[in-house]
């Protein structure tokens, strides 16, 4: 064997979120294509959202996209 990848799994830490933010049956935050949650102006990204692949580089990319969309949302509020 040249290598081994162990996936230990985890439960998303979303218990602190208000009930208005919709979650899937496993507790992951549901978001739209802009990473906005069911509450307008609240964004989520990374391993806490529902998706097939959970990798650091994907989470970082989603965080960047969510951050840009959040900044755009705030700019529109001005």
Brief rundown of the structure:
The chain contains one helix and no strands. It is mainly α and 78 residues long. The chain is flat and about 55 Å long.
Describe the structure.
The protein is mostly helical. 28% of the residues lie in helices and 0% in strands. It has one helix and no strands. The N and C termini lie far apart (57 Å). The mean pLDDT is 91.
Intertermini distance: 57 Å
Total E-strand runs: 0
Count every helix, treating DSSP H or I runs of 4 or more residues as helices: 1
Helix and strand composition category = mainly alpha
- Strand/helix succession: H
Low-confidence stretches: none
Can you give the mean pLDDT?
A: 91
Principal-axes geometry comes out as flat
Question: Which percent range fits the helix content?
Answer: 25-40%
Rg calculated over all Cα atoms: 15 Å
Q: Characterize the largest beta sheet: strand count, sense, and whether it forms a barrel.
A: none
Quote the beta fraction. Answer: under 5%
Annotate the secondary structure layout.
Blueprint: H1 56-77
Pick out its properties.
78 residues, mainly alpha
């Amino acid at each position: 064997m040249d290598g081994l990848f162990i996936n230990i799994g985890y439960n998303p830490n979303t218990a602190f979120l208000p009930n208005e933010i919709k979650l899937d049956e496993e507790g992951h935050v549901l978001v739209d294509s802009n990473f906005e949650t069911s509450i307008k102006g609240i964004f989520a990204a990374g391993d806490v959202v529902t998706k097939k692949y959970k990798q650091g580089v994907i989470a970082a990319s989603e965080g960047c996209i969510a951050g840009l969309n959040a900044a755009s949302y705030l700019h529109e509020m001005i």
